[in-house]
Amino acid sequence: MTPFLRILGIETSCDETAASIVVRHADGHGEIVSDVVLSQLEEHSAYGGVVPEIAARAHVEALDTLVEEALEQAGVTLADVDAIAATSGPGLIGGLLVGLMTGKAIAKAAGKPLYAINHLEGHALTARLTDGLSFPYLMLLVSGGHTQLVLVRGVGDYERWGTTIDDALGEAFDKTAKLLGLPYPGGPAVEKAAAKGDPNRFPLPRPMVGEARLDFSFSGLKTAVRQAATAIAPLSEQDIADICASFQKAVSRTLKDRIGRGLARFSQEFPHTEREPALVVAGGVAANQEIRQTLQSLCDTHGFRFVAPPHRLCTDNAAMIAWAGLERMADGRDPDPLEIPPRSRWPLDGSAETLIGFGKRGAKA
Q1: N or C of the chain: less Cβ packing under 10 Å?
Q2: C-alpha–C-alpha distance, residues 247 and 237, integer Å
Q3: pLDDT tens, position by position, 33-76
Q4: pLDDT, tens digit, 9 for 90 and up, residues 269-322
Q5: Which fold has domain 135-308?
Q6: Which residues are annotated binding-site positions for Fe cation?
Q7: Distance of CA 191 to CAs 82, 202, 203, 323, Å?
Q8: Which residues are annotated as a binding site?
Q9: Which sign does the torsion angle of CA 292, 298, 300, 303 carry?
Q10: Residues 6 or more apart whose Cβ sits within 8 Å of residue 39
Q11: Positions at the binding site for substrate
Q12: Checking DSSP bridges between strand 278-282 and strand 5-11, what pairing results, if any?
């Protein structure tokens, strides 16, 4: 049995500045004691997307105060904390520098060990904090920067089964919204418009459906949306709603095929698991209700448990970073040296092959 542990988590990989205190009790279950998140939505909305320089500056201005708030809400001081966990990648390098350097400074000043956390590992392990899942399980990460299907075998042991070969799903939502004149962020705007639309009006493509490999592609779908909108311009409010509904349906049907194949593969590779197998969904796009319903139905069909952590823990937050640090501590992993650099590209599965579209430096995550 591991001892009681308490950790300070810091997250600054994109456009949320966050700090959190999380504890791991002796029996292994976790508890979020404080979780402070400051969104930069207002700063970036005028640009229709995240501006890295603005994001980094906002992190600098807010992070120290948020760390103080997290400690105060938890009723502890740095002396009561066993370690510091800070996101070290992947993400926007300016933001990563702010968070990791702050984590290093606190660790050095307080004499605490530092754990440099892969942001994606935070997402991968969140379900163990919220639902007490046992290994192994599948995770679908769908966000503005990532679309991946990952086998989670254990702490630090991940196998990427599928990834996007071009655009992330969240990016496709954002660009569709921008094309149709909807506000940023695009995911909620597209979902809201789709509720009033006809999902059968536009027969949009469903990329990769039927492929044996478990990868994703959304660039062609995005192009088809542009062509459909251009063909009937100028667009009425109903036209926009119908395009959004058709887009959302195409996404759901694509995920149904891709994830369905993933669940079947998991059942083949792990036929004798003691507990009900599980699919975990994470990332901002996981808030979309049609996508959730599609995945829930798919899990019901395949005999899987569908696990969707609370929305605040699906999007970027520091609690998941703190928990990943706690998991590493409890697993006996050594802390990281203070010289460790941030990494804008940091694949969760370092052995995964590089796919077309990843560029000269390989996969971002």
Answers
A1: N
A2: 15
A3: 999 999 887 788 777 778 988 999 999 999 999 999 999 999 99
A4: 999 887 899 999 998 898 899 999 999 999 999 999 999 999 899 989 999 999
A5: Nucleotidyltransferase; domain 5 (3.30.420)
A6: 119, 123, 316
A7: 42, 16, 18, 31
A8: 119, 123, 141-145, 174, 187, 191, 288, 316
A9: negative
A10: 15, 16
A11: 141-145, 174, 187, 191, 288
A12: unpaired
Print the SS3 string covering the chain: CCCCEEEEEEECCCCEEEEEEEEECCCCCEEEEEEEEEECHHHHHCCCCCCHHHHHHHHHHHHHHHHHHHHHHHCCCHHHCCEEEEEEECCCHHHHHHHHHHHHHHHHHHCCCEEEEEHHHHHHHHHHHHCCCCCCEEEEEECCCCEEEEEEEECCEEEEEEEECCCCHHHHHHHHHHHCCCCCCHHHHHHHHHCCCCCCCCCCCCCCCCCCCCCECCHHHHHHHHHHHHHCCCCCHHHHHHHHHHHHHHHHHHHHHHHHHHHHHHHHHCCCCCCCCEEEEECHHHHCHHHHHHHHHHHHHHCCEEECCCHHHHCCCCHHHHHHHHHHHHCCCCCECCCCCCCCCCCCCCCCCCCCCCCCCCCCC
- Phi first, then psi, for residue 340 (nearest 5°) are -60, 130
Pairing of β 30-39 and β 16-24: antiparallel
- C-alpha span between 327 and 325 (Å, rounded): 5
Task: Give the pLDDT band (50/70/90) at residue 1.
Answer: low
pLDDT at position 361: 40
According to CATH, where is 3.30.420.40 located in the chain?
A: 5-128+313-330, 135-308
Q: 125 CB contacts (<8 Å, ≥6 apart)?
A: 152, 155, 320, 323, 324, 327
pLDDT digits (tens, 9 = 90+) for 229-247: 999 999 999 999 999 999 9
Chain position carrying tokens 């139905």 = 297
Whether residue 282 contacts residue 139, with contact meaning beta carbons closer than 8 Å, is answered with: yes
